[in-house]
Amino acid sequence: MKSLRSILLPMGASLLAMIIGGILVAALGYNPVTVYGSLISGAFGNGINIGNTITASLPLIIVGLGIAISFQSGLFNIGADGQYWIGATAAVWFGYHFNSLPGWLHMIVCIVVGMVAGALWAGIIPGLTKAYVGSHEVITTMMMSYIGILLARYLIEGGPMQQKGFNPQSPEIVQNTQFPYFTQGLMQSQLSLVAVAIAVVAVIAVWFLLYKTTLGYQLRTVGLNQRAARYAGINVKLFTVVALCLSGLFAGLAGAVQMLGVDHRLLDGFSSNYGYTAIVVSLLARNNPIGVIIAGLFFGALTTGGQNMQMVSNVPAALTDVLTGLIIFFVACERIIPQIIGWYRRRRTLKSTTVAS
Amino acid sequence: MEIVDLKKWFPGVKANDGVNLTLRAGEVHAILGENGAGKSTLMKMIYGLLEPTSGEIRFMGKAVHFRSPREAIHAGIGMVHQHFMLIPALTVAENVVLGDEPGRIKFNRKEAERRVRDLSEKYRLAIDPTAKVADLSVGLQQRVEILKAFYRKAKLIILDEPTALLTPQETRELFAIIHGLKADGVPVLFISHKLDEVLEISDRVTVMRAGKTVETVETAGATPQSLANLMVGREVVLRVEKNAAHPGEPILKIHDLHVRDSGRIERVKGVNLELRRGEILGLAGIDGNGQFELADAIAGLIKAEQGHIIFDGHDITRLTPAERTERGIAYVPQDRQADGLVLSFDLVENTILRDFRKRPFAKNGVIDRAAAASYTERLIREFDVRPPDASRKASELSGGNQQKVILAREVSRDPLMLIAAQPTRGLDVGAIEGIHRQLVRLRDEGKGVLLVSLELEEILSLSDRIAVIHDGRIVAIVPGAHATREQIGLLMAGSHGHSEVSMS
């Protein structure tokens, strides 16, 4: 009953957001049916579109896992975007530097390096300062995120990673580190089964970690009740650092997977916003690793479908941002609704009192 | 006031299911019941916070339907809540008149103070109207609440668990006030789950059980045993039955311990204490005198500034809480919801809270849910936790059952020593009986038990020795068998001759 409720509520919120979005579209003078039709066909209309949607969801899912870990540990990792780019940068650097390694080993090295870089970026400064001097992780992860993104930008805009004579971008990673696409269809949507496998393994690993291991048990205890955690003999400071490290580790993994599977080099821009969208993904999934898959696919579909929507029905793709906002609003509403009901009841009793007296 | 067959049903719960009560003019009428018997639901209906499902409340001969506290106050019902509704930064007079201030636009402070002074003289509730509420003791704050009710022309006073936060001396003073009200013909409804107080103060007692009023009896003809049986619905053992203690070697020695709280205020100021195997040492004291900081320091939850804690022959002063747990210290913390449990965890996860690292609950860092669940189910059976469902969240249990879970967990770890801080706070007679029996059983098994409690009655009935803590220091240690309530009460207040809580 309770688990059913926790699935239905986010779904209901998403549905309500779609309906209100539809009203908005109609008010702007478009036909909501064609608009949503183009959105859905853009996301799932054919094999390539489905592939695109999955490609777009993978980083959201993997970063979302990291966010879920931090939320379950009672921490807000707002800076996953920076951790993602630091992981991506580290993976790319290893990807084009060490070209004498065998392909599979090189891939693993790149991925591991990306994970470690993301973990350290979140764990060292935000983690240690949170644990030992109490600086708030919302501020520190956010600031480290800007530093990370600007550092990556410097590296390819005149820094040591810039490919000479080109637009700001890094050299391409060695061919044998790029994830194979296997078939023509998968290649068109830049979808590699290796990346899918990594995401699936990551989901299972996070689920196992959180619910089946003493490490996850300790993280969740710290997240739910720090005083009880101390009473249980858990080193709260240590697990604060561990939680942020793990959170950054998955953001870094997402960066590495994206580089090896899709981009193959650092390109100027850095406006992925994966770190921020992943917060919504995790919230929508109630910080449940399995739910992160569904929520990640949903937002991936919004991204790819939104592009198609813009092309077919001329509605600005920004409408998908509006939808995202509405979804967040309605998910948050779940906690507001009981308060509104309480406020309404009090007002009614007050009214009846004034009438009576 | 008369209450006829009052019912309040919530979806799935019959909180009140047939309450009948007659309150005569000028009597002190006690409502006695265990937690969850429906006392607070009844109060909320009388005070207009809840609307009855069916039945009738008659007040001064007329049927009334209060839809808000404002209507109830208007009709003349005065309520003193267990937790006071006062604004600490304002003066006594300002608090009393709040909401009905004299003066039109400009607040007439002089007039307010005069009215409050008149009231306090009329009802013999000595208090300084110009004093700030924040500076008053708990007993005096309660007096302000009573004045507030009279300022609003209350014809009936309801006291909800009024002694819960008072020291023994303050309780005496409150009872004197109640006697005064009775002499003035003001009816008082006294809600409590404490037998001795009800017997002492009331004229008649109505016992509630499972949402129903079971019986109304004349207090003069009642005994603690008869009331307790009515409350619980079966025979209960009131006095703790225990044999003589056989204390052995000391299990815990504390030398000159100093502890600061999180606000860097020194709470424990040089405590020396010894606990032996096979004894219950009661630590008596008024709240805020360092007893809970001392308990936390022994368990390792706060650091000792200075001094040594020797447990089982080893200095554990610098050990982590986990290491102390490992060496055999069990701890029932005073705040079961903040410290003792993770409320959103289910009972299985809560049961392994202290031993999740060890076999059989975990192997190589992987939790064995099946082993933990079967262990939890065993404890649920042994300690009669209700509902007996290991997959329930701790937050879904009543306070008494939450406490049973904590106690079951700590006791079943087979510790060498148990620190029990307020183990029965807010629990009803039936649950208290069970917990006390467990503490005595541990003692008889040769374990050391340190009982930290604000309930003097509990300390007196259980302890083999009583240590009294005042202002962070142990001021006396007396044998439990010969201690009296008055003697310990005075020691707790920090004096040998006179009470610290005076009328001024």
UniProtKB/TrEMBL annotation, chain A:
Regions crossing the membrane: 7-30, 50-70, 82-98, 104-126, 138-156, 191-211, 232-254, 274-299
Any matching Pfam family: BPD_transp_2
Keyword annotations: Cell membrane, Membrane, Transmembrane, Transmembrane helix
GO molecular function: transmembrane transporter activity
Lineage: superkingdom: Bacteria
UniProt xrefs under InterPro entries: ABC_transp_permease
Any Gene Ontology CC annotation: plasma membrane
Record localization: Cell membrane
Entry membrane topology: Multi-pass membrane protein
Name assigned to this protein: Nucleoside ABC transporter membrane protein
From TrEMBL, chain B:
Assigned GO CC terms: plasma membrane
GO molecular function: ATP binding; ATP hydrolysis activity
UniProt topology in membrane: Peripheral membrane protein
Membrane-spanning residues: none
Source superkingdom: Bacteria
InterPro entries in the cross-refs: AAA+_ATPase (IPR003593), ABC_carbohydrate_import_ATPase (IPR050107), ABC_transporter-like_ATP-bd (IPR003439), ABC_transporter-like_CS (IPR017871), P-loop_NTPase (IPR027417)
Keywords: ATP-binding, Cell membrane, Membrane, Nucleotide-binding, Repeat, Translocase, Transport
Domain annotation ABC transporter: ranges: 1-235, 252-496
Cell compartment(s), UniProt: Cell membrane
Coiled-coil stretches: none
Entries under Pfam families matching the protein: ABC_tran (PF00005)
Protein known as: Nucleoside ABC transporter ATP-binding protein
Species of the source: Alicyclobacillus hesperidum
